[in-house]
């Protein structure tokens, strides 16, 4: 982009560290905070955009900066939360992609619309939530998403997606499958959620069930579930404001039934979650802990002492240190258990 043709909301040489929760150093050559779809359309008319690398960022809570980015980073700041439909089955809420996810959860509960309570306190924006299909304590985004509105960042054309079009999987969606999250080709502007009137509490996740029992809540309300989830998360997960991190750093791996059985013979206490297709999901945190990495540092990064799956920046770390630690953990888990771990956050 030449300086002459830049829309005035595009900034140059912008620090990204403060815009990501892992707080790794990195700068963007160009940075645009987008508060409206009109601004997106203005950008799409800019010819220089076609030859430029693009990336879309929300709250930066699932992002590893490996250095500077020589293209345009688009930060979605589109706001608004609105009840757009109320019928016998559900409340339908349409939300701007730049809204904070946790605040949305608390707002819906305050309105008396249950359905998002298990996903309380997940960091990040509403628009980022469907990309990796955020999930926690037995519920995931895919369970509540009705549809979303995205825009092709090159043409400015709206591309709506229904639930099937999102092709959700475990921490996965069409955005990751197509690589749209990496090349900034698509940007989510709004998300519509369906909150069921015939709500049923989801309390089977062992840790949540235990917390509710401790609170002597046999039939908890949605708000009480949110409070229990918040308490569990505060106990185990570091607050990025005080200890920078990007949540779970690896996916929980899926292995064949036969490998899971072999591992369980050697380690009877191995947590196992059988899947409908015969494969078995294992707890990455457990594998990491048993490989000696819980609470252990390498350089200025480490695996968190209260939840081994969370990689933390002890202060001043660079992306290269994160990559080195991730590789060391992967190598040890692979050698000890024959299981390959894949990182969950996006590397830029
Ligand atoms: N465990 C250990 N050591 C640890 C932590 C956990 O052995 O240090 C064992 C636990 O005892 C348990 C199992 O590992 O048997 C699972 O642990 P936990 O319930 O804490 O959940 P997780 O599998 O580690 C996943 C999600 C989290 C989500 C929680 C709760 C992934 C990659 N992570 O973690 O999501 O909050 O379940 O539903 O699926 C995120 O994606 O960023 C995230 C935080």
Radius of gyration: 21 Å
Query: Would you report the number of β strands?
Result: 20
The low-confidence runs, each spanning 5 or more residues with pLDDT under 50, are none
Listing every helix as H and every strand as E from the N terminus to the C terminus, the arrangement reads EEHEEEEEHEEEEHHEHHEEHEEHEEEHE
Broad structural category? alpha+beta
- Structural shape: globular
Report the bound ligands by name, code or SMILES: uridine-diphosphate-2(N-acetylglucosaminyl) butyric acid
What share of residues is helical? 25-40%
The span between the termini is 21 Å
Q: Provide mean pLDDT, rounded.
A: 96
Largest sheet: 5 strands, antiparallel
Number of helices: 9
Please give the order of strands in the largest beta sheet: 6-7-12-10-11
Strand content bin? 25-35%
Write up what this structure looks like.
- The protein has 348 residues and is α+β, with helices and mostly antiparallel strands.
- It has 9 helices and 20 strands.
- The chain has helices at residues 37-44, 101-111, 174-177, 180-183, 206-214, 222-236, 257-266, 284-290, 319-337, and strands spanning 10-15, 27-34, 54-57, 63-64, 69-76, 81-86, 90-96, 135-136, 139-140, 145-152, 158-162, 186-196, 245-248, 254-255, 272-274, 280-282, 297-298, 301-303, 310-313, 346-347.
- The strands form 6 sheets. A 5-stranded antiparallel sheet has the order 6-7-12-10-11.
- Helix 5 (206-214) crosses helix 6.
- It is globular, with a radius of gyration of 21 Å.
- The model has no long low-confidence stretch (mean pLDDT 96).
- Bound molecules: uridine-diphosphate-2(N-acetylglucosaminyl) butyric acid.
- Uridine-diphosphate-2(N-acetylglucosaminyl) butyric acid (EPU) binds at residues 136-137, 207, 247-248, 251-252, 271, 283, 285-286, 289, 294, 307-309, 344.
């Amino acid at each position: 982009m030449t300086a002459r043709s830049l829309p005035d909301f595009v900034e140059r040489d912008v620090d990204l560290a403060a815009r990501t929760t892992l707080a790794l150093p990195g700068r963007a050559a160009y940075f645009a905070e987008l508060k409206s779809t009109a601004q997106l359309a203005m950008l799409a008319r800019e010819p220089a955009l076609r030859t430029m690398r693009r990336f879309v960022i929300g709250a930066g809570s699932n992002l590893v900066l490996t250095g500077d980015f020589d293209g345009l980073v688009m930060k979605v700041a589109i706001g608004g939360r609105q009840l757009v439909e109320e019928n016998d089955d559900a409340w339908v809420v349409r939300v701007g992609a730049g809204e904070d996810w946790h605040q949305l959860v608390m707002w819906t509960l305050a309105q008396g619309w249950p359905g998002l309570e298990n996903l309380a306190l997940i960091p990040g924006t509403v628009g980022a939530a469907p990309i990796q299909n955020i999930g926690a304590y037995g519920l995931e985004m895919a369970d509540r998403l009705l549809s979303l509105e995205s825009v092709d960042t090159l043409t400015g054309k709206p591309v709506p997606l229904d639930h099937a079009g999102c092709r959700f999987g475990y921490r996965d969606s069409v955005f990751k499958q197509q690589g749209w999250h990496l090349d900034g080709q698509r940007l989510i502007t709004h998300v519509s959620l369906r909150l069921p009137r015939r709500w049923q509490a989801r309390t089977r996740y062992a840790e949540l069930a235990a917390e509710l029992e401790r609170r002597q809540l046999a039939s908890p309300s949605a708000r009480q579930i949110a409070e229990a989830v918040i308490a569990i998360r505060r106990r185990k997960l570091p607050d990025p404001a005080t200890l920078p991190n990007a949540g779970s750093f690896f996916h929980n791996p899926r292995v064949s039934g036969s490998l899971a059985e072999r591992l369980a013979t050697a380690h009877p206490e191995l947590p196992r979650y059988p899947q409908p297709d015969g494969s078995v999901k294992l707890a990455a945190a457990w594998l990491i802990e048993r490989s000696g990495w819980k609470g252990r540092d390498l350089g200025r990064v480490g695996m968190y002492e209260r939840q081994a799956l969370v990689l933390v920046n002890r202060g001043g770390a660079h992306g290269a240190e994160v990559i080195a630690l991730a590789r060391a953990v992967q190598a040890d888990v692979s050698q000890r258990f024959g299981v390959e771990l894949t990182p969950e956050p996006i590397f830029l």
